[in-house]
Structure formats: C-alpha cells, structure tokens
Amino acid sequence: MKQITQTGLTVEKAISEALEKLQVTREEVKITVIQEEKKGFFGFGAKKAEIEVTVIEKTTFSEQKTSPEPAADILESPVTTLEEEKKEEVPALSNEKAIQETKNYILSIAKDMKIDDLSITHEKRGNKKVNFYLESEKVAMLIGKRGQTLNSLQQLAQLVANKYSNQFMMIQLDAENYRERRQETLEQLADRMADKAIRTGGRVQFEPMPSYERKVIHQTLSRRLDIDTYSEGKDPNRYLVIEPHK
Fold first, then answer.
1. Residue 61 has pLDDT above 70, yes or no
2. Least confident of 66-70, 151-155, 172-176, 187-191
3. Per-domain residue ranges of the chain
4. Which 3 state secondary structure label does DSSP give 170?
5. What class is the 95-176 domain?
6. Which H or E run includes 142?
7. Are strands 49-55 and 3-8 parallel, antiparallel or unpaired?
8. What is the CA radius of gyration of the chain?
9. 49 φ, ψ to 5°?
C-alpha cells in the first residue's frame, strides 16, 4: 500500500503535489487532511497544509465477485478530514480550558521565534479578564518596538482564549511591567504634546496607536480645559489629535 504525507501552501496544492509524486488520479486515492493551512496573524502562527494520501489498492475480478461490499466501502467517500473523524471528541468549553490553550499558543509562538525559556503566569481579574505575565531572557523580542510585537501577541491571545471559553474574555499580556512603563511614558508624552499645541497655536498629531493607548492619552488630558483631543483615521492606523480649545 502506497502512502505519503505531503505539505503545501493550501490543501489543494498539497493534494496536487502528492498526486504528481504518486502518478495517480484523485479517484485512485484516499485523502486525509491532517491540518488545513493557516494564514496567521501579524506574521505569527502561519502554517502550511498537511495531508496524508493513500493509494487505493485495486482488487481482482474474483475478489470483487466474492466480496463486493468491502471494495464499495473503500471507494466511498475517498476524501475525509480529521475534524470529521473527531467530531465526538470536541472538548467542552471553559475558562480554565481557554487559559491553558492561550498559554500553549503563546509558548508555540515563542518557540517559532527561537525563544525557549519563556515562562507564563496568569492572574484573573474578575470573571472575564485575565492578565498573562511573560518572562524570558529574550523579553525584548516579545515586546518589540514600542510594544508592537506584544500588542500583536495580545490580539492573537484574545482570539485563542475566546475560541475555548464559555463566555467572552478580555486578555492582557505584559512583559517585565512594560504596560505600566508604557502608560507612564504616554502620560508624559500627552502633557508635552498638549503644551506644544498651546505654544504653537495649532493641531498636534500623534503616531497611530492601539485604542487602549489612545484612551490613556484622552484620560490624561481630560483634566485640561485649554485643549481638545479627538481621534482620526481607521484602525490600525487610527491616531490622536490635540488642538487648542476655541
């Protein structure tokens, strides 16, 4: 029995490559999808499709005559997926399951980044919010320039958590108190930019920021009556503007 495992950018491309290697047609094989392709998110988590292709053995006339039913069974539904075979094995959703799966996912991303010493702890904040704390000798890689990598990982973690939870969960990732240090930096930057707007008499524009960072600046400047703040643009390029109050 001929059988090979094949990867490809998509399931169809993997099937085509496998059929070419085996020199058979699609009707002559049984195809099992081990893993469908994943495009990833912000460059993380992308995976190729992986399939298993088995050539269906041809029976002789006498075998078909004496045992036609097995031959019919072999030819029936030649393409299957592991998802179909494991429908009855789908685990129940829970917050604890979501937390563990989120940790596993972050660890897998770190491994892809050649970070092997990552440790993750978590803290529940009420029923819906969970903070994850990351520690590693290579923590700077996890944070990235101005927290861009950490923000991307946080969005991924949010998606994974809510895939396995039984209620909506808010996820926050932090590494070496980066969030606290970043908030202090944003508060100082907000005051400097507001002073600049008053000094020049014109609008001052920030670089694009995630919504929660814009919120920090809005809150920091809410006590000032001499300026107005508002956001422009669309995510992920939405930015904050300060203007003197008229």
1. no
2. 66-70
3. 3-89, 95-176, 179-244
4. strand
5. alpha beta
6. helix 139-143
7. antiparallel
8. 27
9. -75, 150
CA separation for the pair 86, 66 (Å, rounded): 33
pLDDT higher than threshold 60 for residue 33: yes
* pLDDT over 50 at 66, yes or no: no
The model scores a pTM over 0.90 = no
CATH 3.30.70.920 holds for 179-244: no
Q: Which residues pair with 232 in a beta bridge?
A: 239
The predicted model gives 93-103 an average pLDDT of 87
Which residue in 170, 171, 174 sits closest to 183, CA to CA? 174
**Could you tell me if 116 and 128 are in contact, meaning their C-beta atoms sit under 8 angstroms apart?**
no
Mean pLDDT in residue range 114-138:
92
Report the alpha-carbon distance of residue 112 to residue 93 in Å, rounded. 27
Decide: 50 and 43 in contact? Cβ < 8 Å. no
Which residue matches tokens 């997926």? 81
> What is the model's pLDDT at position 237?
87
Per-residue pLDDT band at 135 (split at 50, 70, 90): very high
Closest CA to 81 of 109, 111, 50, 125: 50
Q: In whole angstroms, what is the distance from residue 185 CA to residue 216 CA?
A: 10
Q: Which two tokens stand for residue 137?
A: 């000798």
Q: Are 53 and 30 in contact (CB under 8 A)?
A: yes
The Cα diameter of the chain in Å comes to: 96
CA distances to 6, 91, 151, 197, 205 from 174, in Å: 38, 29, 9, 32, 27
Q: Name the one residue in this structure whose structure tokens are 């090979």.
A: 4
